[in-house]
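Hypothesis: this fold can be encoded by more than one sequence.
Test: take the structure tokens below, design a sequence, compare later.
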């Protein structure tokens, strides 16, 4: 692999394929697979990832907002796209680009019905979202009867699927709660099958759900973080490959005398002769200030170097006193050998937050 000459986020599509096949092997061959590509495909590159997933014959894609779906359509992605959290202001655009909304409340339902009716369209595909305990978005169980009455009285919308979302699928301590969510969804599904004039397909599992509750796979599963290489547990992580690696280089090396200081507000002071390296990446790139002051490591020539002092907007400084290195050498912020999950954990956060926060200033480089 050629070494980088600047800060880049490498995106490894082979790793994506590996992870996709791993999760496919965990489900029945008849179960559909939805790839979640919201938030620039978890901070990587939504278009490249969506096109690769399309090539791998993913059944569905999901984004959070309409604009994300529009950008995929404009790039030529043809796979059905579920918009998880649409807003009425974007309904015209959503329809124009053949995106499929999650309908999560009566207000959204009535508003979407009106928009589609006004265009004299019929049987527009939509997905009903049920709240089974996350208490974030969705209809509740005792709204099912009135909902079905409303839906059976119209032909404007077609209920393509019904779904729910688990609150704690990665958390063994919350197994009882998760099972109660799956049971609620099963009851809702049965009611809908019995009363709706046609049978929508069903889905509830996210990445950790696929791993921990495979018997609840229904007709489709939805994976995001797993596709990008994180399984929310150590054992699975060893089976997966990170899609994104954040790399940079050493811009300058400094020799710091005892009692010298490094960075703004003299965040680091040396008690012995110290060698530091300055890297062209900072909080504006998504490496927040919480990663400074010695808690977090990067890899320099395979060795761990702590980030010292305060993280600056465009730079960080690392301690390379005991590492043989020179200006221009490659530095791995996170990747195969120092995972984003571990990096994030040093600041009490999770891989999801770290990877989705890598700013658009960082060049994305595709590894095919
Ligand atoms: C983001 C999201 C997912 C993906 O979750 P992962 O834990 O990343 O697999 C699935 N379903 C819904 C509704 C989501 O919002």
């Amino acid at each position: 692999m050629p070494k980088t000459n600047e800060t880049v986020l490498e995106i490894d599509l082979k790793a994506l394929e590996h992870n996709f096949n791993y999760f496919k092997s965990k489900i029945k061959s008849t179960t559909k697979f939805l790839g979640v590509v919201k938030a620039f495909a978890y901070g990587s590159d939504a278009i490249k990832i969506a096109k690769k997933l399309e090539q791998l014959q993913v059944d569905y894609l999901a984004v959070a907002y309409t604009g994300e779906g529009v950008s995929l359509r404009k790039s030529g992605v043809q796979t059905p796209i579920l918009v998880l959290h649409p807003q009425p202001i974007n309904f015209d655009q959503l329809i124009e680009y053949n995106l499929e909304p999650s309908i999560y409340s009566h207000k959204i339902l009535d508003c979407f019905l009106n928009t589609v009716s006004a265009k004299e369209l019929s049987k527009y595909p939509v997905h009903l979202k049920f709240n089974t305990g996350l208490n974030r978005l969705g209809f509740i169980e005792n709204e099912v009867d009135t909902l079905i009455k409303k839906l059976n009285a119209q032909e404007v919308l077609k209920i393509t699927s019904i779904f729910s979302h688990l609150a704690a699928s990665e958390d063994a301590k919350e197994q009882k709660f998760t099972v109660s969510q799956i049971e609620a969804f099963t009851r809702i599904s049965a009611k809908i099958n019995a009363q709706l004039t046609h049978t929508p397909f069903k889905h509830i599992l996210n990445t950790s759900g696929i791993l921990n509750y495979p018997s609840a796979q229904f007709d489709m599963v939805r994976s995001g973080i797993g596709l990008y290489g994180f399984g929310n547990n150590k054992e699975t992580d060893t089976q997966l490959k990170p899609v994104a690696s954040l790399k940079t280089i050493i811009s300058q090396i400094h020799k710091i005398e005892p009692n010298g200081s490094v960075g703004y507000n003299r965040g680091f002071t040396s008690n012995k002769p110290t060698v530091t390296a300055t890297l062209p990446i900072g909080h504006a790139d998504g490496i927040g200030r919480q990663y400074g002051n010695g808690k977090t490591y990067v890899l320099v020539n395979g060795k761990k170097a702590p980030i010292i002092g305060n993280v600056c907007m465009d730079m960080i400084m690392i301690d390379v006193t005991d590492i043989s290195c020179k200006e221009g050498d490659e530095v791995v912020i996170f990747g195969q050998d120092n995972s984003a999950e571990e990096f994030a954990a040093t600041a009490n956060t999770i891989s999801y937050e770290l990877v989705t926060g890598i700013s658009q200033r960082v060049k994305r480089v595709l590894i095919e």
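The chain has a mean pLDDT of 97. The pocket of pyridoxal-5'-phosphate is lined by residues 36, 38, 84, 165, 206-207, 222-226 (CB under 6 Å).
Hypothesis status: open.
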